[in-house]
Known about the structure:
This protein has 21 helices and 40 strands. The chain is α+β, with helices and mostly antiparallel strands.
Amino acid sequence: MVMPKRRERVLPRLIEDEMRESFIDYSMSVIVQRALPDVRDGLKPVHRRILYAMYELGLLPGRPYKKSASVVGEVLGKYHPHGDAAVYDSLVRMVQDFSLRYPLVDGQGNFGSIDGDNAAAYRYTEARLTPIAMELLEDLEKGTVDFVPNFDDRLQEPTVLPAKLPNLLVNGSSGIAVGMATNIPPHNLREVAAAIKHLVAHPDCSVDELMRHIKGPDFPTGGFIVGLDGIKEAYRTGRGRIIMRARIQRESLRNGKEQLVVTELPYGISKARVVEQIAQLVRERKLEDIADLRDESDREGMRVVIELRRGAQVPRVLTTLFKNTALQATFGAILLALDNGVPREMNLKEILERYRDHRLEVIQRRARFELERAQAEAHITEGLLVALDNIDAVIRIIRRAQDREVAAAQLRKRFRLSEAQAGAILDMRLARLTALEHKALKQQLKALERRIADLEKLLGSRKRQLALLVAELDELVERYGDARRTRIVKGTAELPVEDLIAQENVVVTLTHEGYINRVPLDLYRRRVRRGTSVLRTKKGGDFLERAFIAGTRDTLLVFTQDGLAHALPVHKVPEASTGRGTPLVRALGLGKRAAVAAMIPVADFSADRHLVFLTAGGVVKRTTLDQFAGIRAGGITAMGIRKGDRLLDVQLSDGTNDVVIVTRQGRAIRFPEAEIPAVGRAAQGVRGINLREGDRAIGMVVVRRDASLCTITENGYAKRTPIGEYAVQRRGGVGAAALAVDKRTGPLVAVEELLPGDELMVLTAKGAGVRVAADDLPEQRRTSKGKRVLEPEPGDRVVEVARIVAQEEGGEAKGARKRASRARSGQPEQLSLIGVE
Length: 837
C-alpha cells in the first residue's frame, strides 16, 4: 500500500469557517457538559458524577466517612476527565450550608467558611452523602433513567438522576458558559412543594398563582429581600434583579451609646469582606460615627458588632453601610437550564412543569420495572406450585433423567413449563417440600398478583401517577421541610432602614429584681434546647420572672403593681446576649423601682379589644385597649388600686370569653367576662372572687376554647383539668377546689390554659428549668394533687411557668397568620412563649 504524501493530507480551508465550526463545537461542549444544570435534576455533570460516584462507593448516610481524595480520584478516573480542582471545588460547595439551602454532601473537616476561607486539601477532609441527597438517587437501579457510556466506554453513567427532590429550585445553581450564564436562587422546600401540588391540581394555572405559594428565594444565609418587583420579573420572564440586605439588630449600651449587630449576610457575601469594607470606610473617614468594629461570631451564630459613637445618627450610618458595602447586594436571577439538551430561559411555571414531567416519567419507568420483576417472580412461583402439587412425578422424572438438560426438557414437556420455571424447580431445595412452604408460596403468589394489579392500574392512570407524585412530595416535606430563613420586605431598595431592622421576633425577659433584656429568638431557642440556663446573673438571689415573644415593631405595655401603665417600644428594649440586662426603671425613664405586674406586646390599639385586670385581692376590671394608645412619659393610671392590694395580672381579650381566677390555696372561680363592667382607666373594678382569710389570687385564664386548665405548685406538682369541670358561676363567689394543696405540694404558683401538643417551661428561682409536654401531664379531677414534673433543690422553688404553643402549621408565613388571628380575637402573643422548635 502506498502512503499518501503529506501534501495530499492537507485540505485547503478558509480560516473563518474553521474558527466558526471549532468555536461552536467548543461552546456546545462547555454549555452541555460543564456549565449549565439540567432542568430535571438541577445538577451539572460534575455534580451528578460526584453524587453517583459516592453512591457507587457506598458513602451513604450512617456509614463511615471516606477521604475526599478517594471521591475525587473515583470521579476523575471513571466519569469526569477534567482537573481535580474542578471536582473538589464542586464537592466542597455541596458540603457548605451557607452555599446550598439543603447540602447534598456531609463533610468532616475544614470545608471553608462564610469568611471566604478556602477548604483544606482533599487529603485532609472526609465526605459522605446526606439523607436528602439520597432522594436524588432513589430508584436509580430500577431503570428510571437512561445510562450512557463514560468517556472511555468502560462504564455506564446516568444522564440524569431520578430526583425526587426538586433540586434546581431548592438549591439553585450558577454557572457561566459561552455566550450565556445561569444564576438560579435557592428556595424553600415547603414552598416549592406547595407550588408543584398546585400545578398538579391546576395545570392551566398562571405564574402569579404559583407565586402565592413560592413567595421568593430563600437563601441559606437568611437576610432580607427588599421589594417584590425583581422576584415577579424573574418568575415571569426568567430574569430579574433581587435586592438582598443583611439582617441588622440595634442594641443600646449602658453608657448611652448604641451598636449595630450584623447577624445574617446577603447570599454569597463573605463576612471578612464586609468587615474589611467597613474598616476601609472608617479609615477613609467616610463613616466617622463608628467607634469600634469587632467580629464576635461563634458557634451560636454570626455577630459582627459595629459600635457607634455617642450621639451617632443610626439611620445615616445604616444608609452609608448599605450604599458602600456588601451589606446590600444584588442577585441577578437568570433562570436558564438545559431542557432536552438545549439551553433555555424559563419562567417559574415552565421549570415546575419540567420537574413534574420528569417525575411522571420516573414513576412510569419504575412501575414498569417493578411490574416486570413481579410478573417474573409470579411466573416462577406458579411453576414451583405446579412442582409441589406433582412432587412424586417431578422426583421420578429427575431421578430417571441422565443430566440436568434432559430433566428440564422432560419437566417442560410433562407440565407445560417454561425454561425459567423448569430451572427454578431443579434448583429448589428439599426444605421447600414441606406443607408450610407450600402455603407460603400460595400466599406469596396472591401478594404478587395484587402487586401486579396495582402496578397495572398505576401505569394505566395518569391520575394515579400524579397522586403518587404528590404523596412522595408530602413525604419529602415531612422529612426535610423547614421554615423560611429569608424575610421578604415590600417596598424598594430605598425603603427606610429603620423598617428593615425593626421586623424581628425577640424574647423579652424580666427578672425578679427588675432587669429587662431582649434576646434574639434563635439564640434563646438554642439555649433552651441545650439545657443552658436562660438567665445568666452576676448577682445571687435574682431569678427570671417573665419571658415572652414580641415583635420589635410592637409596643410593650408595662403594668406595675401600683396600677400604672407605661409604654416601651420593643426595639428600644436593650439587648444583652449575656447577663440580666438593664434595669427596667432605666429603660422606662422612671426615678424609682417599679414592681411589674404584667407586660403585653401590642401591635394595634384597637377599640374592639379589652384589657382584663386582676389584683391579688381578687378584684377584676375591663378597659378597652384604645385607651392605652400614646402613653406619655412617666406612665398613666391603668387601674385604681385599693389600699393593701396590688395589680397581679393583665390579659388581652375580645370581650366574649369566660374568666377563671385561681388562688394560692387552691380555689378557682369561672364566670363570663361580660359580668365585668367595661370602665375607664382610673376605675377600681369589682370583686371577682371572694377570698378566704390568708388567701390571695395567683393568676387568671381568659378561656377562649375547650381546653385544659393546668395548675402548678411551688414544689413542682402539675396536672391538667378539663375546663368543663369548672362550672360557670356568678362573679364574686368563693369558687370551687382547683387542687388539693398540702405541705407536700406547696401552694399554687401558676395557672395556664393548655391544648394538646402544647408544652410547659417550668422555671425555678435559681434558673433551673424543665420542658414538659402537655400530653405527659395527667388529666385529673379538680381535687387531685397532680404529678411532680420538677423537684427543686433544697432552698429553691418554682417561680415561673410559661406555655409553649404547639406548632400546628409549618413555615414562618403561617406562623404570622396565626399571630394575626390571635391578635384579631384578642389572644395575647405572650402565649407563644419561647416558640416552637
